[in-house]
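Duplicate of #3305? Posting structure anyway:
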């Protein structure tokens, strides 16, 4: 009997039940992924598409931070870039 059951392709959700992701001051959607800055302990929002080894900036202290892990989210101070003297 379950073979004849058809489900609607789209279900309209009443507006009072729809959730909107929180937005930051710039109007961008806030990320659900957060980690603490190892320098100042501020909460750093990470973009949903961030990858390991990417460098992000702490909004509070301005430190460059490397994403070391996503599960759980872990940040570390990014290594200083060495000068390239044309080599």
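Output from current build:
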């Amino acid at each position: 009997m379950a073979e004849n059951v058809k489900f609607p392709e789209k279900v309209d959700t009443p507006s009072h039940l729809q959730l909107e992701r929180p937005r930051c001051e710039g109007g961008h959607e806030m990320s659900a992924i957060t980690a603490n800055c190892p320098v100042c302990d501020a909460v750093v929002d990470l973009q949903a598409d961030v990858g390991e080894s990417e460098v992000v900036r702490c909004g509070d202290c301005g430190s460059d931070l490397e994403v070391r892990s996503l599960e759980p989210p872990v940040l570390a101070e990014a290594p200083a870039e060495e000068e390239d003297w044309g080599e």
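Confirmed duplicate; merging threads. Strands lie at 33-36, 43-46, 55-57, 64-70, 73-77. The chain is about 0% helix and 25% strand.
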